[in-house]
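Field guide to reading this record: the first block holds the primary sequence, the second block holds the structure written as discrete tokens, and the final block holds curator observations. Each block starts with its own label. This record concerns LETM1 protein, catalogued under organism Indicator maculatus.

BLOCK 1 — SEQUENCE
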Amino acid sequence: GKKSLRQKLVDELKHYYNGFHLLWVDTKVAARMVWRLLHGQVLTRRERRRLLRTCADLFRLVPFLVFVIVPFMEFLLPVFLKLFPEMLPSTFETESKKEEKQKKKLNAKLELAKFLRETVAEMAKRNKADTG
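BLOCK 2 — STRUCTURE
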């Protein structure tokens, strides 16, 4: 059914709280990784990707905070997210946005695989014609 205005507000506040909490946890983990890097240890590929994602999220947080802090500017947030979809830190993304992004990546990979398959088939035809 439809949610009341109060329930929508509570849901949004929970979403922001969870997003900031996850960002705080990621920042603490990233700080430990930087500490390990500074002391000569090597990061795994997964740790390096997490560190880069967390740093990018921290840089994205600055323009996002403007929308949260300035009164009534949060009403413009959907417009800016439509214009700049990567502006939101990854910890604030909803499940539907994550699924949509995964679908786009999968479609791009499928198109690339189709292109490569057609290219290989074309090269095989040319080689068969050259040798025949």
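BLOCK 3 — OBSERVATIONS
The mean pLDDT is 88.
Residues 1-41 form one domain.
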